[in-house]
Amino acid sequence: MLNQHKILRVFKLISLLKKAPAKSTRTLAMMLDITERSVYRYIDLMAEIGFDIKKDKNNKYSISIDDDGADEYFTLEEATLIKELLLSTAKNSALKDGILKKIFIKSEIDLEANHIINANNSKLVAQLNEAIAKKKQVELQKYFSANSNNISNRIIEPIKFTNNYQMLCAYEIASKKNKFFTIERIGSVMVTDKNFEYLHAHRFEHPDPFGFVNLDDQKLKVDLLLSLRAFVILKQEYPMVIPYIKLDNKNKTYRLTLEVNNLKPVTRFVLGFLDEITVLGSDDFIAHLKTFVGQLYEKNKMAGLKGTKG
What we know:
The protein is an alpha+beta fold.
């Protein structure tokens, strides 16, 4: 039986190869945190089990997708086998939940709620899923807001869960805004008899690689040059940023270029590695960082804090 890491790497490699553009073995090795030799082994394995692996003139790989079979479902036997492998060998993996969700959608298998999320939240998610399916408004009872630090009831129209089922995107009636609500902070859920009234305003956006969401169309560019140590720690704390990092072999540095929804996590990370990160951009981020550092200095009298490079 394949072990946990091999199963998840194969799934992730399939996902990477399905998405354009085609990728080199070096890029795949960095994104999967394995050696190029291991990438070749996984590609050979995928070819053996029937995947049509393509290699272009630049020695970059991709998977040929047959559109005619795009909507085919897993058989019950196939889905059950994958489910059992994941639950037995990958039960502690953060990737498990998303894979199980996809199996549930693309097969006849019935996944118990506590296989997907914490058992304490299974009832809440089941109720919210029912409301989404029936397009019914919901009252989130005793919801704790970290921003306002208070507990209140919220009338919403639920839209969609994030892949890890930790948050729900919903349209809040009172504020007339799409917001994200953390499942852990919901006291209870009451599905009402009222149908959706604001379907035209529903909108969902995936969280950025740092885990922040922003429904106000404000994207903030960040361009950083990282030392090896900063790179290693960053990918451990925020593994979703790996696809946005490029290795500079000549200078032995790593460059992170991406757009984020919120500057708080990346600002906090940069401040922890001032001697190992060069801030290349954007101008808005550099200005924000310098202002933040200045305010921090004035507030805490931190004489040793000198700012950023770049």
